Fold this protein.
Amino acid sequence: MGKRIRRTKSISCCVSPRSSYLNPHSSFSWYEDDAWTEIAKFLDGKSLLMLALTCRWFYRILMHESIWKYACLRDLQVPDPRQVGFKWTKLYATAFDGSHSYMFRQQEKHIDWMRVGSFLFDSPTALLTENISALPKSTKGETLEKMLQLYGCVVLNDIKTGIWLADLQLVRCPVCDLNTCDGTMQILDARHIELFLCDGYLEGNWDYELLGSHENKKHAAAATGGIFDIKHLNDQSTAEVFNLKSWVAKANDWQPKAIITYHAVAVNTNLQTNEGLHVKYHAMRAGKGGKIIAIRISKQLL
């Protein structure tokens, strides 16, 4: 997995030194709300939940929404999205319970996956690309078909803003016999953090729609994909994605690599000799006319 580009914030803590806990004359109280609120900043979700279940007092303190919001933003390493549709306890669980999209659909196709990380859509416009080094300088006035033809990329509007999670999926290709085919397909799979909490998705009413496809009928050195918030395409942190030498694997290294910043994600897997790639772009809306809540960029060997 590629190096994650993040600036971490220092955490100030007003908890007394450990020696004060051992001093029989200390004024420290085990039932001090503010002290345990500060201590909670250093606990992961599992530890918070275990401590909260020890008694009603800890449950009241540690299950507060502000505690889980802090833990969620800290562990996801994303800016505050300002507004969310579910409680932070549920958002933390759906982000860290090990679930991914192929657990809900097409389990028989799934081979392996890895969590790339999280990023933020601050604007409702996304740029999807199969070739990071060939991104256009401007997308104004370009149709989806022309973007695919000229650059192998797609511009999407109506993105659901907020926190998004990105996974790299390895699945069996969709046209072969499962018992005999060794063909595989790499998918950059991104979803809004709230997707797995929505009834429309859980009940199977929402599904992916094909936006477009593109074939490159010549040897492809790598399977690459990127998703960008267009508003932040020129940010300094996003620029790290375009510095391919800093995160893409060297020749003959077949392990997938990835990079994620505040407002972008990209993956790259070096390929052995091949006859080209078939690239597909999919998106899922939150119901008819709803916001786009999930995105996939798939690459299959020809």
Observations:
- DSSP finds nine helices and eleven strands in the chain.
